[in-house]
Specification:
Elements: H1 10-29, H2 35-41, H3 44-58, H4 62-84, H5 93-109, H6 114-125, H7 134-146, H8 151-166, E1 174-175, E2 178-179, H9 185-190, H10 204-208, H11 219-222, H12 225-240
Antiparallel strand pairs: 1-2
Helix pairs in contact: 1-2, 1-3, 1-12, 3-7, 4-5, 4-12, 5-6, 5-7, 6-7, 7-8
């Protein structure tokens, strides 16, 4: 069970995740020089990951849940390719989520070694198919599911994984017009948290502090939000060109 002090306001979290994903993709495809857009975009994946944790807790049939997400990934891939200049060799986030749900299903079954075997197969699959965020994305979601039962473990895990993830990304030197001197003795102590990918930790408050918006998104609309943000991105690209 998810710790009762964590946020289960899935409707609101899903809307916020899609908004930050749109911001990230605008930064990636339209304004690549605005690093602030990419920083804000780091919030999206952790919120989608937490949404998967909530979804696997609430679903009546985890296999149907996985197949719906996988089907959405297949249907939306051409739009993903067009909006973000990808190909079928670069699969969208729905494929990443599908693999994570597969891994979680093995943990939930917990028979005949499935709790180890399913996650292993999910991560191994990323060596043969190029999904968004790769094995790190699949692992992040899977491990987040495992630590969901305690708020403190969510915080500890999230912080550790963010630092690990940021280890291979560049440090932010300027943010919102403010130059960050990472050579300064005090700032250098916190410099690991200034790596682009480490800044996914900005999503943590949304996860650990409960909200009660009352927003309920119908299932059909929930699965429409991802392709909708790609359509909006395409429209913006054409307008700004």
């Amino acid at each position: 069970m998810i710790d009762k002090t964590c946020n289960k306001d899935s409707g609101l979290l899903k809307l916020i995740a899609v908004l930050f994903m749109l911001i990230d993709h605008i930064g990636a495809s339209i304004y690549p020089s605005l690093i602030e857009l990419r920083v804000l975009g780091r919030i999206a994946l952790p919120l989608f990951a937490w949404g998967v944790v909530i979804g696997t807790e609430n679903t009546k049939n985890i296999w149907h849940y996985m197949l719906r997400v996988l089907l959405l990934g297949v249907v939306v891939q051409p739009l993903y390719n067009l909006a973000l200049n990808h190909t079928w060799q670069n699969l969208n986030i729905m494929f990443t989520i599908s693999l994570a749900i597969f891994a979680i299903s093995g943990i939930r079954i917990n028979k005949y070694g499935s709790a180890l075997f399913f996650p292993f197969l999910a991560v191994l699959a990323t060596k043969f198919i190029n999904v968004d965020y790769g094995f790190r994305g699949v692992l992040f979601i899977t491990l987040l599911y495992l630590v969901r039962v305690h708020r403190a473990s969510v915080i500890a895990y999230f912080t550790a994984y963010a630092l690990y993830w940021g280890g291979g990304s560049f440090l932010i030197s300027t943010l919102f017009g403010i130059k960050i001197d990472t050579s300064h003795p005090i700032i250098s102590v916190f410099s690991p948290f200034l790596a682009l990918q480490t800044l996914c930790i900005l999503a943590l408050p949304f996860i650990i502090f409960p909200t009660h918006s009352g927003i309920k998104i119908p299932k059909w609309l929930s699965y429409t939000l991802y392709p909708l943000h790609l359509l909006i991105l395409l429209v913006l690209q054409n307008i700004l060109k």
